């Protein structure tokens, strides 16, 4: 099983330090979710783990080696990433996009093979994109485009998959479909999945390990049932909430405080009027 870690990692854009001297070891064969407020550095950390952003100091370790010293195709055969936003060349079909996921396995001595065809077909099928494979990507809805990019990532067939907000632009049905797919990949083939997620309740439901980021560091990490508390949510998100159990899965479920139509409150007021 492949390993992924960061040692004393500092990340910055110019003089603006986003992550400061952070250490992390991604649990092998598990689903990990990065959570935190907007701008806390979740996506920046994910990009650095994938070697898309060079660190100011420190380094990322993949399978015991400094990732900066590995060849691009060597990294791409071990780890794939779906960035938060991706630009598609005009006119490129879904099938053509997904085929790009096989580039780490191509070379002067190795041409397109039946294994490549099979990997593309499986990726299209698992993301329910087979019927759309001949459509131009730029003609699809936002949710369909997202599934096409996820299919390309799956076609890369790596043991470690990094995804930056994979449910972006998806309606509720397709959010669950994609997260179920990633969960099954982990369960059936023991793949290491690392995701940035904004929905705290879905993170608790699907992740084995949660990493909460605040103040350029890891604020807390561990199993959802061990670390997701009202205090953590208030500290990381500046939000008051109640934390209860998901009635279907038994995982932590955050109920945020705030204004809104409160049926319980209305029933209490009705009861008071009756008593008066």
From TrEMBL:
GO cellular component entries: plasma membrane
InterPro entries (UniProt xref): AAA+_ATPase (IPR003593), ABC_transporter-like_ATP-bd (IPR003439), ABC_transporter-like_CS (IPR017871), P-loop_NTPase (IPR027417), Siderophore_ABC-ATPase (IPR051535)
Keywords linked to the UniProt accession: ATP-binding, Cell membrane, Ion transport, Iron, Iron transport, Membrane, Nucleotide-binding, Transport
GO process terms (BP): iron ion transport
GO function terms (MF aspect): ATP binding; ATP hydrolysis activity
Domain of life: Bacteria
Entry membrane topology: Peripheral membrane protein
Gene3D superfamilies, alphabetized: P-loop containing nucleotide triphosphate hydrolases
Pfam families in the cross-refs: ABC_tran
The ABC transporter domain, residue ranges: 4-240
Location(s), subcellular: Cell membrane
Listed PANTHER family: IRON(3+)-HYDROXAMATE IMPORT ATP-BINDING PROTEIN FHUC
Protein name: Iron complex transport system ATP-binding protein
């Amino acid at each position: 099983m492949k390993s992924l870690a960061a040692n004393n990692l500092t990340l910055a854009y110019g003089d603006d330090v986003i992550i400061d001297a952070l250490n992390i070891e991604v649990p092998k064969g598990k689903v990990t979710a990065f959570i935190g407020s907007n701008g806390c550095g979740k996506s920046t950390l994910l990009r650095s783990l994938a070697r898309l952003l060079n660190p100011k100091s420190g380094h990322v370790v993949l399978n015991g080696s400094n990732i900066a010293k590995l060849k691009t195709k060597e990294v791409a055969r071990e780890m794939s990433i779906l960035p938060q936003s991706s630009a598609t060349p005009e006119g490129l079909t879904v099938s053509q996009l997904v085929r790009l996921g096989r580039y780490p396995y191509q070379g002067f001595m190795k041409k397109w093979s039946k294994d490549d065809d099979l990997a593309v077909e499986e990726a299209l099928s698992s993301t329910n994109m087979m019927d759309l494979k001949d459509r131009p990507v730029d003609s699809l809805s936002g949710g369909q485009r997202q599934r096409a990019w996820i299919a390309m990532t799956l076609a890369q067939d790596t043991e470690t998959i990094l995804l930056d907000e994979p449910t972006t632009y998806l309606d509720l049905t397709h959010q669950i479909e994609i997260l179920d797919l990633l969960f099954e990949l982990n369960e059936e083939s023991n793949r290491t999945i690392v995701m940035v997620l904004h929905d705290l309740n879905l993170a608790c439901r699907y992740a084995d390990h949660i990493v909460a980021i605040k103040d350029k560091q890891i604020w807390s990490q561990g199993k959802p049932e061990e670390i997701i508390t009202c205090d953590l949510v208030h500290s990381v998100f500046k939000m008051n909430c109640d934390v209860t159990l998901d009635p279907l899965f038994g995982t932590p479920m955050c109920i945020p405080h705030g204004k809104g139509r409160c049926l319980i409150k209305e029933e209490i007021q009705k009861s008071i009027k009756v008593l008066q």
